């Protein structure tokens, strides 16, 4: 039940001749301080209607608004502050969570519509660095949020598996590589070869020509070149999968750049048919002056197609195959101009679905305030960060709870979860500095803190011998500490809605932190296991908290150990 809506209806009963229900709903506010009530209605907008001072209007209205869900009304100046009936609300909210468990907060906004999400997209033969973390975990969390509000997300790993770098890699492998080394450590060896190629090419420019020649062979279907390319791709994917498995992320499609090789000529023909292509210094471009954008380069003077051609082909393919209601691209904000051009060209092609394409940009991960370097093969490897985080989590578990069963498994859940949560608690567009010591802390606004809080709540339920619950009329609470928790649980569907509307996983992460903090305050001040008439209700509230913390973390892609 939406209690905000019930309050709006009570106000509407008095104002139906002046404001509609939706207008009233939009005016309702959440007071900054708990002592000012649970919901507030400002009377400013009524001043012109009634030709009275807003404070006078508030006083008159406050005396007449009634509802079983409102326990009291307090008028402060132009604000009417409503205090909800704590027992009625707490009972209903706790029972809703008990009934729905992880389904609590689900919405039907999406009506099952397909949403392809272009995410992660590492380059073949190169390691997954910390630079790939954001696209991967933001994309995964958005997929879970979209599913929560009724869409069908389609996770697409648009691999960087084509381009002149493969000609260079083939050249390097044939000159300095061997099969055994690639099979034993694929990414490490392929990166070594790639870096060696560039080092050698500084002294021997003819290597660049060899690299271009091998790429032409690959494009023309040379059997040896194609076999090597496939092998490099397969070996790289095996290594990527190890990281994705640890992150608990899977994909519905690995169609990368190479998949669209045979689809780009159709794009060029389509642009030509619409008379959008112009030639500038031998290159084919689409003029986008009317959108205040630079021209989009479609085909270079040597006939080679570019990223834009490929992304146009991908957009058309995804629309044809998924008939999407939205299409998301979780790509760094430095690519914003590219996606503006993509949408503009699709509009010029008269595709009305162009407005359903959304670029989801994000900020950088920095180290000591500086962008992480990828030059000369010096990358911060994602797998190494996950290893270090897990090792630090294990050390803290050894210190705090050395007899914990499955310590290594829990340390993995905590360490990996810490890295993921730290990324997602930051507003998507913000840059943030990464320091692993701060990330894997059991105190503060961290993933381990939220996991540990839930594990603590689970231990209370175990002490009480409570494994499952059914709804009950007895689950009513009215103390202030319980009420703060109840309000967060009640607001959860709206939290999910806001996370979806803003494509912002940090809204879920912040809810998890706030719920964990509010529960810990409740637990510090309320004797949960004391034998008295409210014991069952308190335990039911603890049960509800474990369910929603687990769901918050699930949406973010973080696992929840029951013991820590």
Automatic annotation (TrEMBL):
Q: Where in the cell?
A: Cytoplasm
The chain positions of domain DALR anticodon binding read 450-564
Q: Which EC class heads this enzyme's classification?
A: ligase
Q: Which InterPro entries match?
A: Arg-tRNA-ligase, Arg-tRNA-synth_N, Arg-tRNA-synth_N_sf, ArgRS_core, DALR_anticod-bd, Rossmann-like_a/b/a_fold, tRNAsynth_Ia_anticodon-bd
Protein's UniProt keywords contain Aminoacyl-tRNA synthetase: yes
In short, the EC number is 6.1.1.19
Query: Tell me, what is one Gene Ontology molecular-function annotation carried by this entry?
Result: ligase activity
Where is the Arginyl tRNA synthetase N-terminal domain positioned along the sequence? Answer: 1-84
Classification via SMART domains: Arg_tRNA_synt_N (SM01016), DALR_1 (SM00836)
Q: Describe the reaction catalysed, as an equation.
A: tRNA(Arg) + L-arginine + ATP = L-arginyl-tRNA(Arg) + AMP + diphosphate
Which SUPFAM superfamilies did the record assign? Anticodon-binding domain of a subclass of class I aminoacyl-tRNA synthetases (SSF47323), Arginyl-tRNA synthetase (ArgRS), N-terminal 'additional' domain (SSF55190), Nucleotidylyl transferase (SSF52374)
Question: What is annotated about its quaternary structure and interactions?
Answer: Monomer.
Q: What is this protein called in UniProt? A: Arginine--tRNA ligase
The species is Alkalibacterium indicireducens
């Amino acid at each position: 039940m939406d209690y905000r809506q019930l309050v709006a209806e009570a106000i509407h009963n008095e104002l139906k001749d002046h404001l509609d229900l939706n207008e009233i709903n939009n005016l309702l506010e959440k007071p900054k301080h708990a002592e000012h009530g649970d919901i507030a209605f400002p009377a400013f907008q009524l001043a012109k209607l009634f030709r009275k001072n807003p404070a006078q209007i508030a006083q008159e209205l406050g005396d007449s608004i009634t509802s079983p869900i409102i326990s009291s009304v307090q008028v402060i100046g132009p604000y009417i502050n409503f205090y909800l009936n704590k027992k009625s609300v707490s009972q209903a909210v706790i029972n809703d969570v008990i009934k729905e468990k992880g389904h609590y907060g689900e919405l039907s906004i999406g009506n099952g519509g397909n949403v392809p999400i272009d995410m992660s997209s590492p380059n073949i033969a190169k390691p997954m660095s910390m630079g790939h973390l954001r696209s991967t975990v933001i994309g995964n969390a958005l997929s879970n949020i979209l599913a929560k509000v009724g869409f069908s997300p389609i996770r697409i790993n648009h691999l960087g598996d084509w381009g002149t770098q493969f000609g260079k890699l083939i050249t390097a492998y044939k000159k300095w590589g061997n099969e055994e080394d690639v099979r034993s450590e694929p990414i490490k060896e392929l990166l070594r070869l790639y870096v060696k190629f560039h080092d050698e090419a500084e002294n021997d420019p003819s290597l660049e020509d060899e690299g271009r020649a091998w790429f032409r062979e690959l494009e023309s279907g040379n059997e040896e070149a194609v076999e090597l390319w496939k092998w490099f791709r397969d070996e790289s994917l095996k290594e990527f999968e190890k990281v994705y498995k640890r992150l608990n992320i899977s994909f519905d499609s690995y169609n990368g750049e190479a998949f669209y090789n045979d689809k780009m000529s159709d794009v060029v023909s389509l642009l030509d048919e619409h008379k959008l292509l112009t030639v500038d210094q031998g290159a084919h471009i689409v003029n986008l002056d009317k959108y205040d954008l630079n021209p989009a380069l479609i085909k270079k003077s040597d006939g080679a197609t570019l990223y834009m051609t490929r992304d146009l082909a991908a957009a058309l393919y995804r629309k044809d195959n998924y008939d999407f209601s939205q299409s998301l691209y979780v790509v760094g904000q430095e690519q914003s101009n590219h996606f503006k051009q993509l949408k503009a060209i699709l509009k010029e092609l008269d595709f009305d679905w162009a407005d359903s394409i959304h670029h989801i940009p994000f900020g950088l991960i920095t180290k000591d305030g500086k962008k992480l370097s990828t030059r000369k093969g010096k990358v911060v490897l994602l797998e190494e960060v996950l290893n270090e985080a897990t090792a630090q989590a294990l050390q803290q578990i050894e210190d705090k709870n050395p007899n914990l069963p499955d310590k290594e498994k829990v340390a993995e859940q905590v360490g990996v979860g810490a890295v993921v949560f730290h990324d997602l608690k930051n507003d998507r567009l913000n840059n943030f500095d990464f320091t692993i010591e701060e990330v894997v802390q059991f105190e503060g606004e961290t993933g381990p803190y939220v996991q540990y809080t839930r594990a603590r709540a689970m231990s209370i339920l175990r002490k009480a011998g409570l494994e499952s619950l059914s709804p009950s009329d007895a689950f009513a609470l009215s103390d202030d500490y319980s009420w703060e928790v109840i309000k967060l649980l009640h607001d959860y569907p709206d939290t999910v809605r806001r996370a979806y509307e803003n494509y912002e996983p940090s809204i879920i992460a912040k809810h998890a932190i706030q719920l964990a903090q509010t529960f810990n305050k409740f637990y510090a001040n309320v004797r949960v296991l004391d034998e008295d008439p409210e014991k069952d209700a308190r335990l039911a509230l603890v049960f509800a908290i474990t369910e929603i913390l687990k769901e918050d973390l699930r949406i973010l892609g973080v696992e929840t150990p029951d013991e820590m």
